[in-house]
């Protein structure tokens, strides 16, 4: 093993929404920072998912197998690359709603309160929106929480076909809202362009790609991490640092803590309570496809969302969730993740290729909060990663789907679609390998008996060890998670800057 001859003030592991954003925040501090990332660089044209070819290249699946409840292997939908999952994402950057930070009764149980409020996160949401160049519009959506500053850029206009649909949904009394999107000169912003690249302009930041952290080494009493062991281009290295921040994604950060078990932390680092890896959430997600009256390009941004059912309605007084259009289906992962859906569509439109199917359809993503359950967890046996995950809160999701099917029927009717098209909206719920919105495996809180991290995202048990990916979420909400991960990384960044003074 090679022992790196440097001593770093901070070692950050992982460069996704959490790690990339934190690196950018800490870079101007002048502190000596090392960033380790297991993946390599992903070309921009690949990450933009601009062509059906990209589906075949499988660039948003990790090149390794994990296992489900039944012991069946699968390829997880997660990108190991510089920028992490923000390289393959849709760039929808929404704030969690104020009530999402409080205890909320759901049909299937209680969504727990965060010990910080929306007001604690608000300045960091604003900072994250600036950093990731969010294009949005306030005032469309009654669930939108207060903003101390407007979006830095105006919202992206809808495609003509989407605009026509929005008019029709509005006539039903629904509220189409402009989807906030992170967009730069070259398409969607991501944690490489907005995080790592600008951080590397500072000569106090060292970056190693193809550097997979495999173990954390603590001091003999187990109170501090002394070194991060990593495989860099296949060679073992030991990196020494004062503070260590994990941001490997909720599943992989838990795995790294579990894999680093030693004499003082026999169940894994910071895992005296056995909570590391528990309470895995990933939101319930269904994609539903509507035939479009006229062909579209298949290549356009997501631009609209609906939160009309977010907190429930008269017939169901519990949260149901959030709906977004998929954007042009050729830019989306729908078909790749839902092969059964593809075969239903192929039957409906015989003789059509994938491109034709995509350009004659409009997709919608439905996402519903899943509730934290200690039995939904990540476990590690040898090198085998298993996700023990049973979806919950299913009725709320079914209700959301029902309401959306009814809304689509109305719209199809209003737009003169055939009775056949009005009644057929193929849909598929995302299987276990869709871990895009994974969170919750190292929840934060002030009580060391019920949480892994304190409110600064420092592990309760190891003084110099932090986790800033989506692991810290005590609940998932129905909102897409990345802006909250980024805002939290900026918040923890302020704490680290203070600590390093
Ligand atoms: C297809 C897709 C579409 C999405 N669209 C949206 C969207 O529109 N809006 C939204 O809010 N969210 C979206 N998401 C989710 C969003 O990308 C994640 O919430 C966000 O990236 C999570 O950030 P993170 O820092 O927790 O983890 P990640 O972004 O996953 O970053 C983890 C990083 O750690 C690295 N890593 C892992 N293990 C190690 C190790 N042992 N050593 C070194 N490095 C390691 C990984 O390679 C990766 O770079 C999408 C996700 C996917 C997959």
- Shape call: globular
Oligomer: single chain
**What would CATH call the architecture?**
3-Layer(bba) Sandwich
Main pleated sheet: 7 strands, mixed
What is the domain total for the residues? 1
What is the name of the CATH superfamily? FAD/NAD(P)-binding domain
User: Could you give the distance between the termini?
Assistant: 32 Å
Low-confidence segments, ≥5 residues, pLDDT <50? Answer: 49-56
Count of helical stretches: 13
Mean pLDDT: 92
Number of strands: 23
The fraction of residues assigned to DSSP E strands is 15-25%
Using the CA coordinates, give the radius of gyration. 22 Å
The class by helix and strand makeup works out as alpha+beta
Quote the CATH topology: FAD/NAD(P)-binding domain
Please write the CATH class name: Alpha Beta
Percent helix range:
25-40%
Cofactors, ions, other ligands: flavin-adenine dinucleotide
Could you explain how this protein is built, in words?
With 501 residues, the protein is an alpha+beta fold. The chain has one domain (2-499): FAD/NAD(P)-binding domain (3-Layer(bba) Sandwich). The protein has helices at 17-26, 44-47, 52-57, 118-131, 160-171, 192-199, 250-259, 334-337, 339-348, 354-359, 394-414, 419-423, 482-499; strands at 2-13, 33-36, 66-67, 73-74, 104-106, 109-111, 134-136, 153-154, 177-178, 181-184, 187-188, 205-208, 211-218, 225-232, 235-246, 284-291, 304-306, 322-325, 361-368, 377-381, 384-388, 427-429, 465-467. The longest helix is centred in the C-terminal third of the chain and has 21 residues, at 394-414. It binds flavin-adenine dinucleotide (FAD). Residues 13-19, 36-39, 60, 77-78, 80, 84-86, 88-92, 212-213, 247-250, 252, 256, 333, 436-437, 469-470, 480-483, 485 line the site of flavin-adenine dinucleotide.
